[in-house]
Amino acid sequence: MTTKIAETVQDVPTPTGDARVHWYLAPDARLVLALGHGAGGGVEARDLRALAAALPLDGVTVALVEQPWRVAGKRVAPAPKALDEAWRALWPALTAPGLPVVAGGRSAGARVACRTAAELGAAAVLALSFPLHPPGRPEKSRADELTGAGLPTLVVQGARDPFGRPEEFPPGTEPVAVPAGDHGFAVPKKADITQMEALAVITDAVGMWLKAI
């Protein structure tokens, strides 16, 4: 029987509106993994939900962070500066349990974590589907943003991600590749891996990495 982790929702005021933290509490937590969503979706993303379901059973409290623009029902994300401002403002809520916090997110959320983790005192950074470059524009690299975090960083990337395949990342980043996965870690029905197996690649890799944090 699968253990279901209860969700607790906390609204947090920020200068750009209320953010919302969806807490998935580990019974004997050793750290908090805070995950922001991307610009094209919210905390319902399959990888974020998979981590929220799996990691609390292994001593990691997961906080899925809903940016103010999503809470307000808007369809378009604001500029990076506004995303960073909200993330900084809600950070005290993430550190309130008194545990080390790993900053992370998917896509745009991963960029926010990379840009702010060091100044906020994060223990490490988790970058899911990091948008290394716009699709078809590899010359517009954001590698400096990723490597500039200055903290232990794990990148998990779909093998078919048009925003940057694993082999495109600079030396030293060594992304975990999700076979057949796209930017949302979706895999085709004809792939040699099922959707559940693809998500297990993510949760297993993140779980093992967090044990060393």
From TrEMBL:
- Superkingdom, taxonomy of origin: Bacteria
Q: Where is the KANL3/Tex30 alpha/beta hydrolase-like domain?
A: 32-209
GO MF annotations in UniProt: hydrolase activity
InterPro entries linked = AB_hydrolase_fold, KANL3/Tex30_Abhydrolase, NSL3/Tex30
> Which Gene3D superfamilies does the record associate with it?
alpha/beta hydrolase
UniProt keyword terms in alphabetical order? Hydrolase
Q: Output this protein's name.
A: Alpha/beta family hydrolase
Organism of provenance:
Streptomyces abikoensis
